[in-house]
Amino acid sequence: MSLYDMPVSSLKGFGKTRAELFSKLNINSVGELLRFYPRSYSQWGDVTPIAELSNGEKALIKATVVTAVSTARIKGGRLLSKVQVADDSGVIELVFFNNKYISSLLKFDEEYCFYGKVSRDIYGFSMTAPEFKKLSDMTDITPVYNLTHGLTNRMVITAVKQALSLLPDVMTDPLPYDILKQYDLCTLRFALNNIHFPDSEQSLEKARKRLVFEEFLVLSLGLKLLKNRKLTQTSCKMPVDYTKDFITTLPYELTGAQKHAVTDCINDMKNKKSPMNRLVQGDVGSGKTAVAAAVCYNCVKNGYQAAFMAPTEILATQHFENLQKMFSDFDINIGLLVGSMTKSKKDKVREKLVNGEIDIIIGTHALITDATKFKNLGSAITDEQHRFGVEQRSKLAQKGEKPHVLVLSATPIPRTLALIIYGDLDITCIDELPPGRKPVQTMMIDTKKRDKALAFIREEIDNGRQCYVVCPLVEDGELPLESAENYAAELMLNAFAHYPVGILHGKMKAKDKDAVMNSFSSGEISILVSTTVIEVGVDVKNASVMMIENADRFGLSQLHQLRGRVGRGEHKSYCILVSDNKNEDTLKRLSTMCRTNNGFEIADEDLKLRGPGDFFGNRQHGLPQLNIADFSDMDSLRASQQAANFILNVSPDLSNDNFKGLRGMVKLLWKSIDNGALN
Ligand code: ADP
Ligand code: MG
Fold this sequence. Notes:
Layout: H1 16-24, H2 30-34, E1 40-42, E2 58-65, E3 70-73, E4 79-87, E5 90-97, H3 102-105, E6 111-121, E7 124-128, E8 131-134, E9 142-144, H4 153-165, H5 177-182, H6 188-196, H7 201-231, H8 243-247, H9 256-270, E10 277-282, H10 288-301, E11 305-309, H11 313-326, E12 334-337, H12 343-355, E13 360-363, E14 377-382, H13 390-397, E15 404-409, H14 415-421, E16 426-430, E17 441-445, H15 450-462, E18 466-470, H16 484-493, E19 501-504, H17 510-521, E20 527-530, E21 543-548, H18 556-563, E22 574-578, H19 584-595, H20 599-610, H21 634-650, H22 660-671
Parallel strand pairs: 5-7, 10-15, 10-16, 11-13, 11-14, 12-13, 14-15, 17-22, 18-20, 18-21, 19-20, 21-22
Antiparallel strand pairs: 1-9, 2-4, 2-6, 3-4, 4-5, 6-7, 6-8
Helix pairs in contact: 6-7, 7-21, 7-22, 9-10, 19-20
The structure holds adenosine-5'-diphosphate (ADP) and magnesium ion.
């Protein structure tokens, strides 16, 4: 029987009640318990300062003996010994019964660890018959686990110790011997024993190295298999390339990179064996919408419906209007489906989708609700992909019979990371902007020059332009640096007293946000003060200035996204980065923004300067949460990708018996996010 089939409640001393506490931590089996790695380690376990002890609870204290041990014979002839010990925070009395050695074991002025139940009375704290150890003998590294109310660290330790003792004598390691040898990794048994109860710092390091590698390997394999699986399926047949008819009607010539992207997509769609599964990533303003439109056109001409999903209503509506214009010369029906439409309107659109009256549907998440059904969906396109997870993307695709899938992203990601984040997709980069685009002139100022910048903005508005002011409302419980509302109020009263100012922040309802955004689009509002919610691809061609307060608070890629909101029309545009931070690294980072407008260059720089964390922010990528590995460990990531390639070369579907264990782990990984991906 696998330890994964053994419930926690089968451990000695862990009945149903305690097992339920574990299940709150998502641990249901002994196998899962073994994979519940410590959050950190402590030389002594969790030490409580004496002043923070609470009556009736067991605790570990680290204290020095401050009195001599006094021993007396009490009623019944028993020996009672008392001694006081202290730490920086307080004093506690220890009480021992019938232990004649206490006075020789506990030496005056020496430091010990004591573990026992605390009681408190009017004389203060005391501990009766605690276990103790000389501090110098405390060499163990004790694991510290994430806990839930009612579950103590000691309970977890006891459970894990038992679980480890249940490991079978002959253990099959999911990592084949060759891989262990090649990458200098320890066995699973060693890793599990030492990740929980390390013999030494070195053993802990060895254990961690192996488990990190293993986690990355399973993730890489999972993503690659997902991609291969898609390769083995047939799809909607689109043998003819009709895009030329459409492209010639556009008011501009496609850039070389756009043409390239269209060709990649069309080739994918012609391929009879497998559906397209492609990511097109390109800088803001690089013209991804036209590529998507060409794909839609080709799909419709080949006899299928196309769906185009955007993360916000504003964006969906914008795409709807653009595509209507682009297709005005063709006999193609375009529909819009967004959450704020009335039910009867939505029903009508949905009906037209089912009976095939609508050829191209554009919408938001409304497209992936159960109520939305298609007659014959041939391609599923997702815009600003980083706003959706793997799951939502595949939900849209599931609306058809293995349709072609295209995702668009304006967040350029360095290749090494793209391989992981988008491991299941082919990638095309649009690395060229339409001609005549003036790069956004970017400058760095400190707050002393803010007034000057505001005067400049007024000038631009007087010339008919519009402008964005972004102030990061710091999330995650940090104090707001410049809260958007106060700041907007301040601007309305002073610098922009005579100009229409709008405000946009994350806590507003979607409807209210859309209303503000619409009045900015229509020009009613000249200045939009906002937190980062304008990040997503809105297109207001008349906006010419982007001022970013506390610019040092953003990652480069995020700043680049924000800057992409301006410079979308014929007007010369500016980006003003405001920061008083004089840290050398920060200045270097911000000066990258002033130096280049190339998103790929900026992404590489961001990776170098800040590590990959920013690219994985907020789990927007839809990947499963990592247990022990961390994406900043690029060496391990690279090694595991290499190993994954090697393994899939030997056995493309992992069916080889050598990889049975890995196959099981990959299955387990995807269970949570893509049901049955490997069935
Ligand atoms: P993004 O890649 O950010 O989605 P869009 O598709 O919104 O970019 O395009 C930005 C702007 O550039 C749009 O106004 C679009 O009409 C225009 N555009 C796209 N391709 C070209 C081109 N080849 N030549 C000139 N303008 C173009
Ligand atoms: Mg776009």
